[in-house]
């Protein structure tokens, strides 16, 4: 049995392509692994605050010195981190906003990249602690970016996931969605076909 954690980050709801891909993934995964628990965290409907002094205080101050708001910030970060630690499979649904990921997804990452929990510092540099996990990244993009210099999404997510020890990462891109006509249909169909192969 594998525990699956899905992180939704699209600001859109009904018209979101990344959410369409997520629903296809869930359907396929449940068909193949009906006993596997799936947790969905929606960063659009339940956003995570951006990194601030309260969270830093919760991380860094001794317990007896933390304010109530720092304690609440730490508790939120602990909950998000515990969800990630418990998961065997991580799914990031990430539309491309301005050549990169949504700020809500960046905020989630800032909460779960935790020294001593998801990575540690060693004499030879940082070492990821989440070895053995798999990740799938489902993207939706208005143009054609895969492999190009304007794609700051895939390289960043590969680096940050590797930083915490997740090296088995599969990207599925739905591209050309704002280009109209054949580009839009072809991009979505290719993504769905690729997803059907891996999920």
From TrEMBL:
Segments forming domain Flavodoxin-like fold: 3-197
Task: Spell out the InterPro entries in the cross-references.
Answer: Flavodoxin_fold, Flavoprotein-like_sf, FMN-dep_NADH:Q_OxRdtase_AzoR1, NADH:quinone_OxRdtase_FMN_depd
What keyword terms does UniProt attach to this protein?
A: Flavoprotein, FMN, NAD, Oxidoreductase
Instruction: List positions binding FMN.
Output: 10, 16-18, 96-99
Which E.C. number(s) belong to this protein? 1.6.5.-, 1.7.1.17
Q: How is the cofactor bound?
A: Binds 1 FMN per subunit.
Is the keyword RNA-binding in the record? no
One matching Pfam family: Flavodoxin_2
**Reactions the enzyme catalyzes:** 2 a quinone + NADH + H(+) = 2 a 1,4-benzosemiquinone + NAD(+); N,N-dimethyl-1,4-phenylenediamine + anthranilate + 2 NAD(+) = 2-(4-dimethylaminophenyl)diazenylbenzoate + 2 NADH + 2 H(+)
Q: What does this protein do?
A: Also exhibits azoreductase activity. Catalyzes the reductive cleavage of the azo bond in aromatic azo compounds to the corresponding amines.
Q: What family does the entry list?
A: Belongs to the azoreductase type 1 family.
Q: Mind telling me what this protein is named?
A: FMN dependent NADH:quinone oxidoreductase
The record lists the organism as Pseudomonas batumici
Supply the gene name: azoR
């Amino acid at each position: 049995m594998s525990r699956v954690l899905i992180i939704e980050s699209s600001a859109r709801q009904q018209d979101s392509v990344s959410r369409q891909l997520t629903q296809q993934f869930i359907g396929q995964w449940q068909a193949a692994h009906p006993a596997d628990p799936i947790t969905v965290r929606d960063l659009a409907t339940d956003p995570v605050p951006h990194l601030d002094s309260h969270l830093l205080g919760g991380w860094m101050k001794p317990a007896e010195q933390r304010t109530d708001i720092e304690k609440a910030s730490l508790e939120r970060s602990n909950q998000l981190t515990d969800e990630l630690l418990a998961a065997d499979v991580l799914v990031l649904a990430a539309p491309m906003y301005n050549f990169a990921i949504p700020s809500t997804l960046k905020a989630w990452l800032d909460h779960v990249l935790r020294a001593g929990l998801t990575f540690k510092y060693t004499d030879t540099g940082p070492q990821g602690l989440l070895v053995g996990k798999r990740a799938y990244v489902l993207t939706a993009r208005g143009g054609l970016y895969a492999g190009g210099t304007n794609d700051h999404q895939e390289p960043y997510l590969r680096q940050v996931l590797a930083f915490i020890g997740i090296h088995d990462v599969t990207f599925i891109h739905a591209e050309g969605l704002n280009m109209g006509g054949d580009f839009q249909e072809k991009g979505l169909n290719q993504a769905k076909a690729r997803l059907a192969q891996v999920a």
